[in-house]
Amino acid sequence: MTRLAIAINMHRCIGCQTCSNACKMENNVPMGMLWTRTIAENCDVTDGAVGEFPNLTRTYLPMACQHCENPACQKVCPTGATYKDDMGRVEIDYDKCIGCRMCMAACPYNVRVFNWNDPNRDPDFNYGDKDVPVRSKGVMEKCTLCKERTDRGEEPMCVVCCPTKARIYGDLDDPNSEISQIKRQRSVRILLEERGTKPQVFYFE
Q: What spatial distance separates the first Cα and last Cα of the chain, rounded to whole Å?
């Protein structure tokens, strides 16, 4: 068994958005869309803070598909376009996606995006990994855990490019992996744990 996952050290995350841009370029994500984003918790703006000056605090929370063990999105997909593969990743078969957006409604993490229009790219050509499928208008998109890279045994681009090394990638089913040891030995935060989706992305300090 394999369960590819990402752990994020919130103490190290500085909200620089490098992960968002690295993901966008690697995966040929169109303008106006992001597969991963970093938000300031408990704020209504991207880079806000909590409190009153000079007593301010700010916590950054990187958000993307949680690659759940028990994905709510998969349960509602009427065509089987959303599926869990043998590496533990939640993926989308774009040829089967009919754009009904049921998965978007079911996902409690609000991390899917939809191609409402013909994809607009700047520069005006496809970029990123040559093996990444080109998505058309009318399909869902989300973090794939850089499927093309991880299929080759490489790390996701967000992990590679993080300047503070806040992201740790590995196999939760390998007891000797760094990510598996962190989950066993550290106090970790699971987003919306009460929903029973069992995310394979988790946070720690």
A: 28
Q: What's the pTM?
A: 0.93
The residue type found at 1 is M
As to burial, measured by CB atoms within 10 angstroms (0-12 exposed, 13-18 middle, 19+ buried), residue 130 is exposed
Q: What is the pLDDT of residue 48?
A: 86
Lowest mean pLDDT of 39-48, 68-77, 81-90, name the range.
39-48
Degrees (nearest 5) of the Cα angle 193, 195, 198? 55
3-state secondary structure the chain: CCCEEEEEECCCCCCCCHHHHHHHHHCCCCCCCCCCEEEECCCCCCCCCEEECCEEECCEEEECCCCCCCCHHHHHCCCCCEEECCCCCEEECCCCCCCCCHHHHHCCCCCCEECCCCCCCCCCCCCCCCCCCCCCCCCEECCCCCHHHHHCCCCCHHHHHCCCCCEEEEECCCCCCHHHHHHHHCCEECCCHHHCCCCCEEEEC
The pLDDT tens digits for 155-187 are: 999 999 999 999 999 999 999 999 999 999 999
Q: Which domains does the chain have, with CATH numbers?
A: 4-204 (3.30.70.20)
